[in-house]
């Protein structure tokens, strides 16, 4: 005899019992009658099918599952992320503050960083985030036809992080990657502040990692998000990086340039990288992925910081705030490293 599923995302007694061993995000959302769909719950539970090299484990796979909702305008009647009954009920309601409260209440109960990161994206997918002047807003399609271009097809496997980690921590290997045809561009906002590093000729070209939080289709994406970039080489104006005597060679390898985000034709969310989770939580939150990356020799897979890439981007731009930002961020990083029993990095 099949147990009846209760309306509006509520779960039966047996379903509630099964949640005891579920991922924190699945469990807390279910307790607030916001049960996620079975595919997401399976990924978060790190079931065997997600323990696969190209998938990189449940967290990465779950972040990939969010892509179609981040990259497309949302239709709440077919939101798909939640239990079927809940999706139908969400679709019948208008986007009022009251609709967001159950999601916000669930997020407040989450303790682990990896749960919070995914939950914040899910909240924005479901309710929409209204950016203000302080936000770094990207577009899925440039409203100016002059810059029309689509994001090329690219993969989302687990190797992307190694190229960015090598850039930050293993200059010798990075210099070898792609020869002179392999390099990093800096994509900046209209004020010249770095938004992301885009790799060219290393793995899939035009795959970038954000170094600040950005907003795409009314969804906030944290620093460390992998983004696909599309632009027309003939339409954009690239500014070659100026070489300084005290710069590391990696900064000006190949044809490294500065590109305005406003001149790009489109941006596309790919997935979250391991760097969205801080080093003090990463090994526990991403066990399978950390095992893969460590065995593959990814430099500083468990202790690398997205701040290192942000500071690299500032340095490449010869940004006036570089020194101040560098000292402030490195002091914060070292406080965390000392608390974990690690050696502080030299400032």
Question: Top keywords for this entry?
Answer:
single chain, 38% helix, 347 residues, 2 domains, alpha+beta
Mean pLDDT across all amino acids? 83
Q: Give the strand content.
A: 5-15%
Approximate shape: globular
Low-confidence stretches: 1-11, 91-98
Describe the structure.
This protein is an alpha+beta fold and 347 residues long. It has 2 domains: 13-127, no CATH class; 137-339, no CATH class. The chain is 38% helix and 13% strand. The chain is built from 14 helices and 10 strands. A 7-stranded mixed sheet has the order 8-9-2-3-4-7-10. Strands 1-5-6 form a 3-stranded mixed sheet. Strand 3 and strand 4 form a beta hairpin. Helix 2 crosses helix 7. The protein is globular, with a radius of gyration of 21 Å. The chain starts with 12 loop residues before the first helix and ends in an 8-residue tail after the last helix. Mean pLDDT is 83; it is low at 1-11 and 91-98.
């Amino acid at each position: 005899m099949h147990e009846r599923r209760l309306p509006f995302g509520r779960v039966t007694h047996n379903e509630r019992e099964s949640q005891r061993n579920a991922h924190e995000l699945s469990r807390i959302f279910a307790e607030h009658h916001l049960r996620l769909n079975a595919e997401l719950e399976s990924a978060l539970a790190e079931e065997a099918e997600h323990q696969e090299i190209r998938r990189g484990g449940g967290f990465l796979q779950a972040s990939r599952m969010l892509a179609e909702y981040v990259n497309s305008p949302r239709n709440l009647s077919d939101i798909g992320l939640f239990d079927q009954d809940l999706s139908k009920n969400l679709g019948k309601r208008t986007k009022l503050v009251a609709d967001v409260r159950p999601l916000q209440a669930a997020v407040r109960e989450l303790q682990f960083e990896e749960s919070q990161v995914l939950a914040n994206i899910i909240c924005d997918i479901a309710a929409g985030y209204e950016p203000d002047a302080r936000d770094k807003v990207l577009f899925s399609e440039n409203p100016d036809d002059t810059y029309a271009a689509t994001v090329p097809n690219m993969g989302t496997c687990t190797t992307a992080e190694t190229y960015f980690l090598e850039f930050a921590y293993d200059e010798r290997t990075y210099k070898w990657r792609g020869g002179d045809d392999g390099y990093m561009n800096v994509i900046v906002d209209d004020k010249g502040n770095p938004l992301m590093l885009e790799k060219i000729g290393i793995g899939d070209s035009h795959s970038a990692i954000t170094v600040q939080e950005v907003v795409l289709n009314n969804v906030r994406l944290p620093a460390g998000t992998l983004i696909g970039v599309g632009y027309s080489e003939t339409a954009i104006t690239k500014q070659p990086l100026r070489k300084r005597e005290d710069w590391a060679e990696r900064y000006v390898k190949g044809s490294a340039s500065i590109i305005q985000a406003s001149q790009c034709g489109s941006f596309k969310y790919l997935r979250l990288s391991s760097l969205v989770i801080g080093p003090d939580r990463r090994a526990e939150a991403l066990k399978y992925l950390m095992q893969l990356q460590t065995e593959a020799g990814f430099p500083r897979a468990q202790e690398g910081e997205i701040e290192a890439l942000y500071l690299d981007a500032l340095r490449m731009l010869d940004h006036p705030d570089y020194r101040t930002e560098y000292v402030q961020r490195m002091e914060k990083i070292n406080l965390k490293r000392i608390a974990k029993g690690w050696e502080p990095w030299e400032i």
